[in-house]
Amino acid sequence: MDATTTVRDYYDSLRHGAPLDTFFADDRPEDDAIVKVGISERLVGSNAVQAGLRDQTLSTSDWVVESRALRVTERGDVAWFSDDVALAWTDEDGERREFDTRWSGTLERRDGDWRFVGMHVSAPSEV
């Protein structure tokens, strides 16, 4: 699988409420190298990223993820991407959230699979 497919599979998993934590590299718990920045959060370290993604999957539903400008570049075992994404979901209180977002990130090929080692999602306003 290539890095572009990994990004698209991540979007599909988000849409379908499937687990997302497996898309991120799993480093030593004390390693702060893995970072995921969301619209209103910053998660540092594998454990924090994976726990945050598991919580997000449990506390949200009805995702819309519409990629508008995905660009992915691979160089050896490293890849980076950017995208403009229409993003919407329903939170556990039933409130619908909608944003035009900008995504960027870095992936690393590990044991033949692409894993995110950094991701940044931003929007003009916070949740």
Automatic annotation (TrEMBL):
Residues 7-124 form the SnoaL-like domain. Coiled coil: none annotated. It comes from the Archaea. InterPro entries: NTF2-like_dom_sf, SnoaL-like. This is Nuclear transport factor 2 family protein.
